[in-house]
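Input chain follows. Return structure tokens only.
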Amino acid sequence: MPPTAKRCISNLDITKVEFIASVFKVEQVPKPDLPEIGFFGRSNVGKSTLINALLKKEIARSSSTPGKTQCLNYYRINERFYLVDAPGYGFAKTSKKLRDSWQKNLEQWLIEKKNLRLAALLIDAKIPAQNSDIQMAEFLRYHDIPTVVIANKVDKLKNSERTAKLDELQNHFAGLEFFPASGITKDGLGPIYKRMDFAVGG
């Protein structure tokens, strides 16, 4: 069994959320230095919806053209840590030049990751594991980033297929903590709050 969040004894109570900056280069990372939790996922995985559900505020916005947003969006939470919304990846219509630029900037950020305490990798619970998601998990593992997998959109699964589909997905991310959730119904957010709280020293 992969590690779980059972070590976390408190639940994160988000009371203050502030958009701080859109960061295109590592030197633009905002001050003061605070712990960071990064959210990663393919375009159209519902990342903005899940972030808004977690933050209890309609603050994260998805681009009207999937794959076009190429910056790190920093949100300061409770004046205690940053939630960092990373650009979506894996959208077929994104140019190779744009994808290469995104990967270069992301890798530089991860190399200088002194404050990145946790990466939350969002995947789509409705579909089989995608190569781009598996590659991103390996990318984060290569850079020694503590990583959890959030299977979003579980509300779209039939009850009869839910267990089998989630088990199959989890098998592709062996060794990583795995959280089924829904940004629409807010199902499964409790364990994610606890894991975030633990990551930033709760």
